Each structure stands twice: as structure tokens, then as C-alpha cells.
Amino acid sequence: MFMKRGGIFLAMTIIIALVVAACGGGEATPTPRPQPTLAPTATPAPTATLEAAVTQAPGAPTPTARPLATATPPPV
């Protein structure tokens, strides 16, 4: 009886080993798949800049950006 169970265990172990080897052995890195390509996106036209340039009066000074509040006071 013990030899019969041992033989079945050995046969099942060999069968499982063959199936695992035939399926790739549980490889760590999967097969690479092609990635879908995304459609190119169009960049919108900078309308705000164009509007500001069009509505600015001729000869007027160009507006400059002022810095926001800083952690240190400006030098005196």
C-alpha cells in the first residue's frame, strides 16, 4: 500500500513538473505586449496672448508681472 501511494505521488510530481515546464516555468517577466498608440493632440492657440496684444494701445508700456508676497521683506 505504501509503495502504491509513493508511486502515485512520484508520478503526479513528474506530471506537474512537465506541465509547469511546458507552460514556461512561471517566468518572472511576462511577454511584452504592444502598447496602443494614442492619437496626437492639437495644441490650442494662445488666444489670451493674442487678445492682449491686439487690445493694447499703441505706445502704452508693456505690462510686467509683479512678484507675489515673499517671506523676506525687500531690502531698504
Written account of the structure:
There is one protein chain. The protein is mainly alpha-helical and 76 residues long. The protein has helices spanning 2-22, 47-55.
Number of helices: 2
Strand content: under 5%
For the terminal residues, how far apart are their CA atoms?
100 Å
Shape: elongated
**Quaternary structure:** single chain
The portion of residues assigned to helices is 25-40%
Unreliable stretches:
none
Radius of gyration: 37 Å
Order of helices and strands: HH
Task: Report a brief summary of the structure.
The protein is mostly helical. It contains two helices and no strands.
Topology:
Blueprint: H1 2-22, H2 47-55
Question: Tags for this entry?
Answer:
single chain; 76 residues; mainly alpha
